[in-house]
Amino acid sequence: MPNIHPKTTPIYQTSVFTFDDLNELELYFGQPGQSYMYTRYGNPNTDELAQEVNKLESGVGAVVTSSGMSAILAAILAVCQAGDHVLCAEEIYGGSSALLTQELTRVGIEVGFVPTADTYTLDSYVQPNTRLMLAETMSNPLLQVLNITRLAQETSRQSIKLVIDNTFASPILTKPLTLGADIVIHSVTKYLSGHSDVTAGVVICRAQEVLQRVQKVMMVYGLNLSPFEGWLAARGLKTLRLRMKQHSSNGLQVARYLQQHPKVEKVWYPGLEEHPQHELAKQQGQGLFGGMLSFQIKDEAEAVNRFMQALPTIPFAPSLAGVNTSISHPLGTSHRSLTPEQQQKLGITVGVIRFSTGIEEPEELIAELEAALAVV
Ligand SMILES: Cc1ncc(COP(=O)(O)O)c(C=O)c1O
């Protein structure tokens, strides 16, 4: 074999690694992290991704998983067992809420939801068997900003772990572990990979023993990511900082434009001074507010359809955080599994559109919105 020194990590698209003899096998078990055995247990591409995300989030280590959902599952199963109780912020991604209420309850993990108004005083929600609370840095889809330091003080007082879904903010804006959270998860599918071509997740931990549990759950449940997806995500991650600056700058310009438009009834974006947690968002996000915003047009499906059909380059795509702008419809997609009462309570109506601002020239985005709003 010639002496090859690649500048970037090659793709180790292999399910298994070989050993010369029993001595090498013993080295694998005796010196963890020095060699590889089986891709479900570890692979150079997924390890590279885990290490890079861990650096950004300032953890003791990270575990990469097959999706954001499996990252949430791994984080919860690392800490909880049957008979335990989990708290969850009421304003949360619909899939997270479905995982808790429809699946984890089936294996004996109880769930309680905390209304936004009560987030920082958990006395009436914590039970003797409560182990953790799950919340998002910025809620999906209405961009309520969580005061992580304050919640971490409360979860620590209650002796429960705080798990933060940092997908919407990314570590460029906010590093929850440095603010007192115990575990951070991401849907790597979104900003971290950034190009709408990967489905992946990651769990980053503050304590070594939690990290070891997450690693074990990932391996034993088979929640691992494939090498190629790990490679793609690690490649995308290299431009995260640049992308977040452009997403944030575009997000602010689009939000300001929408805010003054007569056909737009409401805009939710933490960068707007009118946003209830604007000051907190500014300080917790290093002056950046990200690319996600939501806005409300006329509460009629026909108006929403006309608006969507009049956008020539901005697609309706039920995901977010890619380099190309897209819109989504929370009521019809991410929050579809909630009851009509829950949807109503959260304010997710038919006219609410979620806007994932890409990194295009902002003038192009605004011109396209202007034309589409004209037909509403
Ligand atoms: C905030 C948030 N967390 C977690 C997830 C789940 O991630 P994935 O689709 O990668 O499983 C999503 C997906 O939209 C999300 O928006």
Determine Rg (CA atoms, Å).
21 Å
Beta-strand percentage range = 5-15%
**Low-pLDDT ranges:** none
Mean pLDDT: 96
Please outline the helices and strands.
Elements: H1 22-30, H2 44-57, E1 61-65, H3 68-79, E2 85-89, H4 94-103, E3 110-114, E4 130-136, H5 148-157, E5 161-165, H6 170-173, E6 183-187, E7 201-205, H7 208-221, H8 227-237, H9 240-259, E8 266-268, H10 278-284, E9 292-296, H11 301-309, E10 326-328, H12 340-346, E11 352-356, H13 362-374
Parallel strand pairs: 2-3, 2-4, 4-5, 5-6
Antiparallel strand pairs: 1-7, 6-7, 8-9, 9-11, 10-11
Helix pairs in contact: 2-8, 3-7
Modified residues (N6-(pyridoxal phosphate)lysine): 190
Pfam family, one: Cys_Met_Meta_PP
Family: Belongs to the trans-sulfuration enzymes family.
Brief summary:
With 376 residues, this protein is of the alpha/beta class. It is 37% helix and 14% strand. The strands form two sheets. The chain has a seven-stranded mixed sheet, sandwiched between helices. The chain has a four-stranded antiparallel sheet with strand order 8-9-11-10, with helices on one face.
Overview of this structure, please?
- With 376 residues, this protein is of the alpha/beta class.
- Helix content is 37%, strand content 14%.
- It contains 13 helices and 11 strands.
- The protein has helices spanning 22-30, 44-57, 68-79, 94-103, 148-157, 170-173, 208-221, 227-237, 240-259, 278-284, 301-309, 340-346, 362-374, and strands at 61-65, 85-89, 110-114, 130-136, 161-165, 183-187, 201-205, 266-268, 292-296, 326-328, 352-356.
- Strands 1-7-6-5-4-2-3 form a 7-stranded mixed β-sheet, sandwiched between helices.
- Helix 2 (44-57) runs parallel beside helix 8.
- The protein is globular, with a radius of gyration of 21 Å.
- Bound molecules: pyridoxal-5'-phosphate.
- The modification N6-(pyridoxal phosphate)lysine is found at residue 190.
- Pfam families: Cys_Met_Meta_PP.
